[in-house]
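Structure request: Tyrosine-protein phosphatase non-receptor type 9, Elysia chlorotica.
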Amino acid sequence: TSHEATREREDLQVIEPNDKFIQKELETGKFTLLPGRDRTCAAVALFTARLHYPPQTTHQVVLKSLVYQLDAALESIDTQRHGLVFVYDMTESKYANFDYDLSIKILSLLKGAYPARLKKVLIVTAPLWFKAPFKILRLFVKEKLRDRVYTVNVGELISFIPKESLPIQLGGSQVPCHQVWLQMCYQCATNQQPNLSSYFAACPTGPDGRCRSVSRSGSTDMDNHISDFDSESSKDTVNEKHTHEYKEKEKEDVDDMDETFKDKTGLKDKDSVTAISRKRKTSDSRTGLPDQSTVNEPPVDDMPRKKRPLSSGSNILDDSIHMPDCNGVNIQELLNKVNSLKRKGLFQEYGSIKMEAPSGTFNTSKLKANLPKNRYTDVLCYDHSRVTIPVTEEDLSTDYINANFVDGYMQKNAYISTQGPLPKTFVDFWRMVWHNKTRVIVMTTRTIERSRMKCGQYWPNEADSDEQFQEFIVYNNSIIEGKDFTESHLMLHNTNTGESRELVHLQFTSWPDYGVPPAAPFLDFLFKVRAVQESATKEVGSEWTGHPLGPPIVVHCSAGIGRTGTFITVDICLRRLEDVGTVDVRETVRKIRSQRAFSIQMPDQYVFCHQAVLEHAMKQGLISSMEQISLEEPDSDSD
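Returned structure:
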């Protein structure tokens, strides 16, 4: 059978409870069965992610410890009948605690290869880096599991599991009893036939003496429910998806449980709940893992990807091209690289990036009707990532603006990179801002530099003034002028709908006419942008149903590639550094250029990205201020 094949492939035929490696793994308490049950009498398995350190164990040992405990849990007739709820607690976990390949094996084990009914998967306080990857979450949501996966916070757990069944660390009242559970497991493994009813909470019984499930009164809308996630028929936009009401079915009919069990787990008759008995002591009871093709090559043919939304925000489950991987370097290694390559070596590295051919076409930018809308004839925008704007009755021929969506760190469409608006595109610019629900505009140039027009005055630049751009009226409510940047609080009013939105316009004014700015004021500006975006997103509240970091930030300079690309590169690198402790400036730039062509325009901007990351690291104490950045070559006669 597939169970036997899996046992053989993963070398799980023999699970020796006295093995010192298995004992050490069991003692970590990362995986356990709780004494309490959920509202449907299902057993509750808890995996605590922050207790898992991949370098300290192996997949085989972890899987054996899981199978060892699941075998014991399924000695309970109630667990056989009512199934299992898997709680994956990611509270305070880091990326270093996460093992992608092991996760695939565990999830595949739980979702059907193991002879127990998986009722739900509850992912508790999932960090952003875990919510984002579609490739991980799509393993949960195939077919039967689609309605049974939830991402919840600790407070929402009691909607699924009674407080008295939850451990204290998850807001419950259950005191830890992992050692008692391990004693039960040992007795099961050594054929001592323990009384599991003394450990697990009893299920309520009906008048006939049979166990019955507890039904909840009413139902709950769960916005975090990943339902119909990759169905071709699901809605295309985040707003449509999140306004759909999802209902959870909690009541189960025990009389037809056998048929339901077989149907939902895909088990054949011989594997049905009626066949699961004390025979679990035999070797074919310890199963667990999918075949190798499932581990290495998740099937994709039966899982069509969702169509990309037009431009209305970002889906938390969409893939960003900027994800944590094993290719980055830590901050000390980055410092060593910079000091080794010097400015000349970094210039050469940038030169190799600049030589790469564009990764897309520019057909829409080149259309005759759109050419006048481009500030520079040689700065066009890719077709595949361009931002589209709603057409108007006056101009049905185009939805074009010279702007591209650019992903952030684990955030799809985090930014809109665009050129400095021309007078003829002011209205297009404000339509784009409105259509994408943008609340923060970042400007990294002055309108005039070196006596050249770099950007049109597309917003009222005096406090308590306003300007109208067709259907939009822009009010400037206040201006705060700082040493390095100017902060304007705007109100954007749509006369067609009668709606108004508050925006913040942040203009960095310390970029010199030539070269790059000092890193310190630039970093202050970047973190000001982050703080304003966070505040604006909180104020919007439930109106924004996309990524937790908020709607796209519009970033522009003059061409929308040089300073704009520099700002985005540093922001992405610092977010990754904060998350996993590594950076990869070169690949970050290459990926940004795959969405906004020619981003990072000059070699000194590329060098500056490295300097800014290192400057931030010094501020944070990640490297000593005594470790100097040395970009210049030593004098040739200094030897």
